[in-house]
């Protein structure tokens, strides 16, 4: 609206625009007048036909090179086996096919671009042209016409007069998307208590993830780190991923006299303690165990837990300790769970409590 | 030629006539064929984004021909030995197939991924160019928002794409996302169950992310990008101040032929460079990462760079958790989840804040030099600093190992830097801008240092200053300087107290911060110039 | 020289100086940075415990105590076994140069014969894992894929997907496994040096250790192929992002500068 009021700003004149109260005054005072576009200077190619010819040849050369590179691409595709490894300094041992295809394709494309740009830069006219701008906003007459048209249209529809039609239409339009929302219901089941249970249960043996054999207390030495899953689980189970995401277990052995937390000691067996491997922050498998300090660090966000003190959080963004699994030994001498985790494993959630 | 024209129009013209009769292409071409584009390298940043987006679409379509978006468990029997017989999802298996058994598949995969990283980096730099030169001012605010939305959607398109191969790294990223969703009060568990079709990881998310990644988000982005380009054409390009360049014109070269060749050629240049990079450097080598298992993990688990700042937020947040009435508020995760969009929105809303402070309703087509708008520039640098501090936080483990630092110390550095670094950056940048303004003023009044030392007859050494020509003088003084807004007297002429609203006061304060006495250096005036140049013995 | 002085006021002069300075600093750093390549040679000999005891008294007793009982500066060595000595001394981690978050790998200062003597002495203090024989750690014929799965379950969380290393708390770190000999990897798994947990045969049998060694050799050995090109440190998205910004976007901007730059004018000298 106010663009018409703004004077030619490059004139060395003093203007203060204050279109309305409260807006900023612009002290526009340009002391050095605009000399206008500088005269066009010729390029070498404009005045020297030999230079222009050189440019022409260079451009044609680039287009030719592109053609050759495409031929090279096809040749590489046909001749180089997909598993051929080549050594290219300084990149190393890489796939010959990938390198050849990428380089030829890159060259073929780059040369087309380089040729076109060189053409534009050296042979096409480089005279700078000024184009007028026009204000984006419409002239007042246009604006008035649009407003009048709209008013006429709105009145003809009787939209404003027949409130019943208007309101019921709004109602219908507001309701109809609900069908879409309702349809999303079957995207997944309700949470219920799914996050509270894992595959662990009383009497389930602790199976070594490495050997798939049940563990005995004597297998777990001080300073060692072992991962376990509940007996009866197999990598081939259809829900293995979902189950191991909650059941993964980390087993270490700490001299009982070094265990500071009373409950931890109670729930352990001869210093063998079993903690959930799933971080209570956002669920990364935490297992960077430092055997001298008994700290475990999460590789994703660096939450640090002290396994000798109830796995409480000593650093980082996790909000609560790792859940401990209560373990014992069955009559055959194997480590077994004495129940499921008492609290939900993994990241906290609203219903966790 | 002209005689030819009279007899029978050449074939090309006849085709054009045919098309014009149906599509009206001549009126379109009339306005646009010789459209003027100014020459400046920074005006091509947007083109880098456009072209890498096209490259991503082309390569993406190719990848869909081979990729199986399924989480069914299969055993691997392809040609990569160290994974023989391993269980993996079909998604991972087909990505392995693309990488090792489809000729050129690896190249296309790498072009797709490198182009994605460059696309987002390009958008970031493009956005900063628009920001620091004030190109977002009227009439381009809407286009600024379109661009911002493209950046945000690009981030999520990238994230969903990164998750598709179902490898150990991206799976860890998805797990993080699921943990973050769980932290949402009241509905978190429901959202998670609905998104993953049950418990994590379930068997659905790859297929779901796939349709989001290849259809939903790119579809919206394509629409936004077309709108963005139409507006660029409609508004005509901005330009830097200079002789002959005013707010009412645009100086440059015509679309046909120069920019047809330059912009068209630039597409091939961008594609060529990205193809060469994909031949040279490996990206996301999923065979080295292995298939996803929720009980396995690797150190150095990071998202692609554009999500790095969110990773930083979550890494440095203290582990706050509140248990009340049998419910848990997971603030340690939820606060970063809320700050994450806020970081982005901060920069997105800035143009509207500035236009409110200046109250300027005119169109602006001449770009600012960043130094001439110290407060805006300082704000932008502070924001980038903020972003960078978070990026450092997102890679704290790699900083620790590569610079032999303690990860805990870096985390604390980021925690403090989150609040302090932007403030320092703001102050320092503003000082630098003002210093540069003074230097410009000096240059205008005293000329440019020539580097030539002269000895005067009485033994004094001086450096000869060369006066600037009219064009340079004009360029250095073309920017306009605002005067700070005044609240005015709080008591009117009749002694009645005038109500001043809080927002008015705030605005006056901000305006002073922008244009007050110590916040911009007054431009040299013609009088000053004359006075100095007419005098003698100046150094 | 005249040309140089004429150009020192050029707007880009500062940039050039800065680049030169950066290059010089980098070059100097590369020249003076301590190199950490160490390799133990494989000459095994049996030697008397006495010789080991003498070496121990000179090189180790100040921290670990005169009888290996440990002190405030170093842990007890009773029962750590010969494998631990062979690893710690054989990779140069011991003797320690200075107390710190963790003993880094450095130049090995004892020869293999002396290391064996030290090992013999330490194992005489109390039984522990002995130095593995080549039959135990030679990965020939091992299951690489199984090793990969084991590696991702047991090792990758600290050492990264392919053994590039990673950070631990308070300046400690899991070292890169590139170029570490199979024997030393085996010993590290067996004994759990410093803060690394051990993976004894009871939970990770000899065969599985071999699988892991074979996997490491396949994915991070001298002949490992990186099909896609530069490995970028094998560190994942952070180095990829840096590369994308610097070389990807960087070269595209360089190209853009060329596209938009003015062509040389005829008048210019």
From TrEMBL, chain C:
Which Enzyme Commission number(s) are listed?
7.1.1.8
Superkingdom assignment: Bacteria
Chief place where the protein resides = membrane
Q: Which Gene3D superfamilies match?
A: Cytochrome c-like domain
Write out the entry's keywords from A to Z: Cell membrane, Electron transport, Heme, Iron, Membrane, Metal-binding, Repeat, Respiratory chain, Signal, Translocase, Transmembrane, Transmembrane helix, Transport
Q: What is this protein called?
A: Cytochrome bc1 complex cytochrome c subunit
Looking at the record, the residues that make up the Cytochrome c domain are: 47-126, 142-220
Species of the source: Streptomyces anatolicus
């Amino acid at each position: 609206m106010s663009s018409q009021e703004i004077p030619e700003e490059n004139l060395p004149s003093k203007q203060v625009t204050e279109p309305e109260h409260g807006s900023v005054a612009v002290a526009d005072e340009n002391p050095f007048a605009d000399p206008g576009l500088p005269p066009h200077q010729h390029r070498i190619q404009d005045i020297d036909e030999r230079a222009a010819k050189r440019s022409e040849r260079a451009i044609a050369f680039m287009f030719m090179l592109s053609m050759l590179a495409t031929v090279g691409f096809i040749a590489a595709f046909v001749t180089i086996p997909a598993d051929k490894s080549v050594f290219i300094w300084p990149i190393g041992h890489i796939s010959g096919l990938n390198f050849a295809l990428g380089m030829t394709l890159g060259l073929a494309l780059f040369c087309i671009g380089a040729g076109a740009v060189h053409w534009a830069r050296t042979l096409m006219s480089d005279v700078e042209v000024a184009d007028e701008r026009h204000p984006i906003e419409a002239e007042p007459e246009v604006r008035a016409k649009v407003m009048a048209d709209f008013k006429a249209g709105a009145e003809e529809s009787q939209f404003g007069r027949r409130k019943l039609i208007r309101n019921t239409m709004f109602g219908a339009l507001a309701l109809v998307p609900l069908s879409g929302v309702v349809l999303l219901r079957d995207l997944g089941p309700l949470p219920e208590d799914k996050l509270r249970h894992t595959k662990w249960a009383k009497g389930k043996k602790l199976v070594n993830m490495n050997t798939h054999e049940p563990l005995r207390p004597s297998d777990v030495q001080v300073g060692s780190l072992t991962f376990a899953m509940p007996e009866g689980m197999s990598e081939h189970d259809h829900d293995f991923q979902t189950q191991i995401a909650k059941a993964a277990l980390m087993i270490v052995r700490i001299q009982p006299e070094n265990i500071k937390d009373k409950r931890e000691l109670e729930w352990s067996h001869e210093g063998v303690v079993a903690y959930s491997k799933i971080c209570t922050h956002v669920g990364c498998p935490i297992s960077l165990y430092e055997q001298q300090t008994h700290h475990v660090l999460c590789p994703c966000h660096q939450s640090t837990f002290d396994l000798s003190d109830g796995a409480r959080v000593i650093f980082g963004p996790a909000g609560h300790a790792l859940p401990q699994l209560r373990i014992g030994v069955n009559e055959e001498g194997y480590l077994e769970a004495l129940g499921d985790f008492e609290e939900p494993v993994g990241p906290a959630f609203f219903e966790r409590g | 030629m002209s005689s030819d024209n009279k007899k029978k129009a050449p074939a090309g013209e006849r085709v054009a006539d045919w098309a014009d009769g149906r599509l009206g292409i001549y009126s379109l071409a009339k306005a646009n064929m010789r459209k003027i584009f100014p020459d400046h390298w920074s005006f091509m940043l947007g083109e880098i984004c456009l072209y890498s987006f096209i490259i991503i679409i082309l390569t993406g379509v190719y990848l869909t021909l081979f990729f199986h978006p399924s989480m069914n468990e299969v055993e691997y029997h392809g040609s990569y030995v160290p994974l023989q017989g391993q269980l993996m999802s079909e998604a991972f298996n087909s990505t392995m197939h693309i990488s090792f058994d489809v000729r050129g598949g690896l190249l296309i995969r790498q072009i797709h991924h490198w182009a994605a990283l460059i696309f987002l980096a390009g958008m970031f730099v493009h956005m900063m160019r628009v920001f620091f030169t004030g190109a977002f001012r009227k009439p381009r605010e809407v286009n600024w928002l379109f661009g911002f939305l493209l950046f945000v959607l690009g981030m999520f398109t990238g994230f969903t794409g990164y998750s598709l191969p179902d490898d150990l790294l991206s799976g860890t990223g998805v797990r993080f996302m699921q943990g973050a969703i769980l932290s949402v009060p009241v509905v978190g568990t429901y959202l998670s169950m609905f998104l993953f079709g049950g418990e994590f990881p379930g068997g659905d998310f790859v297929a779901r992310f796939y349709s989001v990644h290849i259809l939903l988000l790119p579809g919206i982005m394509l629409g936004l990008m077309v709108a963005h380009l139409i507006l660029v054409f409609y508004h005509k390009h901005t330009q830097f101040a200079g002789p002959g360049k005013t707010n009412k014109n645009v100086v440059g070269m015509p679309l046909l032929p120069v920019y047809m060749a330059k912009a068209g050629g630039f597409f091939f240049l961008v594609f060529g460079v990205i193809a060469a990079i994909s031949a040279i450097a490996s990206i996301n080598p999923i065979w080295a990462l292995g298939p996803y298992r929720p009980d396995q993990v690797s150190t150095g688990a990071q998202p692609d760079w554009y999500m790095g700042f969110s990773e930083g937020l979550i890494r440095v947040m203290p582990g706050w958790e509140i248990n009340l009435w049998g419910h848990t508020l997971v603030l340690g995760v939820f606060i970063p989840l809320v700050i994450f969009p806020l970081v982005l929105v901060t920069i997105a809303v800035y143009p509207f804040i500035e236009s409110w402070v200046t109250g300027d309703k005119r169109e602006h087509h001449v770009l600012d030099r960043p130094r001439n708008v110290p407060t805006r520039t300082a704000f932008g640098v502070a924001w980038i600093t903020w972003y960078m501090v978070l990026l450092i936080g997102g890679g704290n483990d790699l900083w620790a190992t590569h610079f032999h630092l303690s990860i805990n110390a870096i985390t604390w550095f980021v925690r403090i830097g989150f609040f302090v670094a932007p403030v320092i950056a703001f102050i320092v940048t503003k000082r630098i801008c003002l210093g540069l303004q003074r230097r410009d003023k000096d240059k205008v009044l005293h000329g440019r240092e020539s580097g030539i030392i002269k000895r005067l007859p009485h033994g004094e050494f001086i450096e000869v200053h060369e006066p600037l020509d009219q064009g340079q003088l004009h360029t250095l003084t073309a920017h306009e300087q605002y005067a700070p807004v005044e609240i005015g007297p709080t008591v009117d002429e009749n002694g009645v107290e005038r109500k001043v609203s809080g927002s008015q006061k705030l605005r006056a304060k901000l305006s002073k911060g922008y244009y007050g006495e110590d916040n911009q250096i007054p431009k040299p005036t013609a009088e000053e110039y004359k006075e100095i140049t007419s005098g003698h013995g100046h150094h | 020289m005249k040309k140089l002085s004429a150009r020192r006021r050029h707007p880009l002069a500062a940039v050039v100086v800065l680049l030169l300075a950066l290059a010089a600093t980098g070059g100097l750093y590369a020249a003076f940075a301590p190199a950490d390549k160490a390799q133990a040679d494989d000459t095994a000999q049996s030697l008397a415990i006495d010789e080991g005891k003498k070496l121990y008294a000179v090189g180790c007793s100040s921290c670990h105590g005169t009888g290996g009982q440990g002190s405030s500066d170093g842990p007890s060595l009773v029962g750590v076994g010969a494998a631990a000595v062979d690893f710690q001394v054989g990779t140069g981690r011991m003797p320690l140069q200075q107390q710190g978050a963790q003993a880094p790998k450095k130049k090995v200062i004892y020869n293999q014969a002396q290391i064996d003597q030290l090992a013999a002495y330490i194992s005489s203090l109390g039984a522990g894992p002995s130095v593995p024989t080549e039959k135990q750690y030679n990965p020939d014929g091992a299951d690489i894929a199984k090793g990969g799965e084991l590696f991702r379950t047991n090792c990758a969380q600290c050492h990264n997907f392919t053994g590039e290393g990673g950070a631990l708390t308070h300046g400690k770190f899991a070292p890169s496994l590139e170029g570490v000999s199979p024997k030393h990897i085996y010993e590290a798994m067996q004994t759990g040096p410093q803060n690394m947990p051990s993976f004894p045969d009871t939970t990770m049998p000899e065969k599985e250790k071999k699988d892991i060694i074979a996997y490491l050799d396949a994915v991070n050995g001298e002949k490992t192929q990186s099909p896609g090109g530069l490995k970028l440190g094998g560190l994942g998205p952070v180095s990829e992002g840096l590369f994308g910004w610097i070389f990807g976007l960087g070269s595209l901007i360089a190209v853009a500068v060329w596209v938009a730059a003015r062509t040389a004018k005829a008048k210019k000298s």
